[in-house]
Structure formats: structure tokens, C-alpha cells
Amino acid sequence: MTVIDRPLDFLWFIPSSGDGAYLGSDDLSRPADPAYFREIAKAADRLGYSGVLIPTGAACEESFILAADLAAHTERLKFLVAIRPGTASPAYYARLAATLDRVSNGRLLINIVVGGSAQELAGDGIFLPHDERYDHAGEFFQVFNSLVETGKANLDGKYIKAIDARLGLPPIQEPRPPLYFGGSSDAAIAFSGGITDKYLTWGEPPAQVAEKIAKVRQAAAAKGKHVSFGIRLHFIVRETDEEAWAAADRLISKLSDETIAAAQEVFAKSSDSVGQARMVALHQGRREKLEVSPNLWAGIGLVRTGAGTALVGSPKTIAERLREYQELGIDTVIASGYPHLEEAYRVCELLFPEIGLPGPHGQIRSAFGEHRVFGGGGHGGNVKIASAS
């Protein structure tokens, strides 16, 4: 079975630095609140998303701790959490990962984040130049992988030294939880070829994604490895294309030019990420032409770091765009939308049927076999469909 014959593996997102209905505005915003994150996770679990990405960074809740909390409130949902080499030793991260996999009953996915903001990394005590961070990460994962796969590790490296390191309790998943990674620089792609189980790209036009996929495949083949591919996208799906584009316009309707300029200045000064530069290049900080490829809208990247594009349209339109990415080799989508609770429902209810995903788990019967329609929720319940005369 080819990639395009299989339904996509579809994950959602936990907005652990906060959420809202308008970019660049406090109107209808929602602060970072663990109770709200549980609402989103429980909804994603019930609606049929396979997992959630939990972001990392100084502005976010710590991903391992948040995942452990959310695991206690969900049943099937997997948690894609970040390991940032250099913020702790590989032995300590191995203990964190094994424990989280054990307490969640094998629901851990690992997101390798080498780091895109030199300014933030300096705050974490990491001062290596961009490309050298990947050399460091390569040694880090030699130790980490050896520990979680065999329980022991030794390395006398340039950056990492581990002498008779031990891990007492193994993870549930064998040989270890899967490793996800995204990075667009030559150094990142070279690193990904020997380490990554799944390579993630941000939502770029298909031609650019195809170019990256080819490079990663070549890097992996050179090291005798196989890698699969995923894409990180926002979604604005409505019943019609017109409604979806109106919703996209509404999302940035309270975003001022001054806020855009301030955000872009921060990106330029603090980030040495090639992926971030590629996102900025799509819109160049301007509102005039935000549809950078059919139905691929770069408005979110005017103020958001990282993934800055959304697929906008009706379920049928978005399904067509997703199939184009599938034909390139994409088999996984990590999705989000604003606000994340409501949009998790929209994407499930509108898009999932169009792309062959089953939707909510374990829905119970609402009638004794006869077809009824929603009657407004009154005390009389729903109503039968009248027979055609």
C-alpha cells in the first residue's frame, strides 16, 4: 500500500503558551491554563486525533511535565514532546523519556529540537554556533539511544562524555519511542539522515517540500536509513471556500502593521533558523500576497514563530491540497487552528470524512435505529425525518 492509499496520521496541538481567536490582539484570548490544555487533549483524544504536539521554549509549559499530566486524562492520545540537547544530559533525558513512556503506557513520541533562537539558547547556557549544534546533537543521541534501547552507554566524544551510563527501567516501546525532527539547513538535513524516524517540514509550497524530501531521503540512504515524512500546518476549514477565506481574514483583522513589524524585527534579530527564514520569505512581512501557493496562506507567520502557514478552504479543497503533499511522501500531519478547542472539532467534523479518517472514538447510539435530526436541544429531543410523499 502506498502513502496516498493510506489515511494520514493526524495529530493536533496543545497551545501551551496560550490561545486566542485573533492574532495580535488580546480580544477573546485565553491564557496558558493547564485546565484548558486538558480540555483540548480530551477533545483530541475523543475526536480521533492520534496525538498532540506539545511545543517547547521559554514561553511554553515544560513539555514532559505537561504531557505527564495530559496522559492521566486521556486514553489513546500520543504526546510528541521535545528533547533539546544541551539543556540536560542525555542520561537525564533518557530517564525522563522512559518514565513518560511507561506511565503513559507507550504513548510517547520524541521531537528533537536543536534550537532556532540563538538568544533563547544562550539563556539555556548553549553557545555553540548553528552547524556545530548538530554535531553536538549527534553525540547526544548516540548516548540517549543506546540508553533507552540497551540500558547502557559509553562515549568519549568532543561534546558528550558518558562513562558507564545506565538506565534502570526501559520504555514500553521497543526499541524506543520514535524520533521526530525538523530542520531546513544543510547541517540539519545531514543530521536527520542518521537519526530521524520521521522528518517534519513546516507548511511550504509543494515544490519546496519536494526538494527537502529529496535531500532528506538522499541523506538517509547514504547512512543506510529509512525515514518517513510529516508536515506541520495550521488549518482554516469551513463548509465553503468563501467562508474559510473570510475566517482567515478575520483571524488577522485586529493585527496592526506595528505589531507585524515588531514581530518581524524580533525574528530577524533572535533567530538563526533556516526554517524560520524560509517562513518569512513566503510573506516578507507584508499583507499584500499571503496566499503563497493554492490555498496555502502565510498570514499566521506575520507574528508567529515557527510554523506560519495554514491550509484554507472547504473540506474538499483542503483534501485535494493534502493529497498533493501525500503524493510527495507525506504520511503525517501535525495540525492546529485558532482557538484550538473549537478548531479541533471543526477539522474533525468537516475534514476527517473527506480524507478517510473515522472521527470520534466510541460514539454511543442516540436513537433506536431510526434517523433523527437535531431539534434544537429542547426537552422533546430530536425529531424524525418526515417521509417523502
Automatic annotation (TrEMBL):
Q: What does this protein do?
A: Catalyzes the desulfonation of aliphatic sulfonates.
**Position of the signal peptide:** none
Q: What is its EC number?
A: 1.14.14.5
- At the top level, the lineage of the source is Bacteria
Q: Does the keyword rRNA processing apply?
A: no
What Pfam family is a match for this entry?
Bac_luciferase
Put simply, this protein is called Alkanesulfonate monooxygenase
Q: Give any GO molecular function from the UniProt entry.
A: alkanesulfonate monooxygenase activity
The major lineage groups are: Bacteria, Pseudomonadati, Pseudomonadota, Alphaproteobacteria, Hyphomicrobiales
> What positions does the domain Luciferase-like occupy?
10-331
InterPro entries given in the database record:
Alkanesulphonate_mOase_FMN-dep, Luciferase-like_dom, Luciferase-like_sf, SsuD_RutA_monooxygenase
Which GO terms are recorded in the biological process aspect for this UniProt protein? alkanesulfonate catabolic process
What organism is this sequence from?
Rhizobium tropici
Catalytic reaction annotation: an alkanesulfonate + FMNH2 + O2 = an aldehyde + FMN + sulfite + H2O + 2 H(+)
Q: Which gene encodes it?
A: ssuD
